[in-house]
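## retry 2 of 3
previous attempt timed out at serialization; input unchanged, resubmitting
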Amino acid sequence: MNRRFLIAGAMFGLTAVILGAFAAHGLKGAISAESLNSFETGVRFQMYHAFLLLILGGYNFLSPKNINWIFYLICSGILLFSGSIYLLSTGTIFSINFKPIALLTPLGGSLLIIGWIILLLNFIKLKKK
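## retry succeeded, writing output
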């Protein structure tokens, strides 16, 4: 078991539920339907990756080097991808132009993709053994 994966997965899952409830009850009508849809996309991706962290936290099949890379890529990816979407979606509420951070969204998505690629390569190596 990997405690930090389990803690991170639980924290990201908890905040995804809170933010999802906030979107459904607090943001409806306060932001456009398009922005609400984007916000919900951020919540959905955060929850998917929270589950991934919880699953990986229960197994010990990855090398310490790879597990570190995957952990930091997934956590950073969630923060950049979902976090930037949350800010971009709610900018009108706060009267703040978050558009300058828009490039963080694809950067975060790229980090998530790289984490999945490293995981896939590790699974391919498992098959060869």
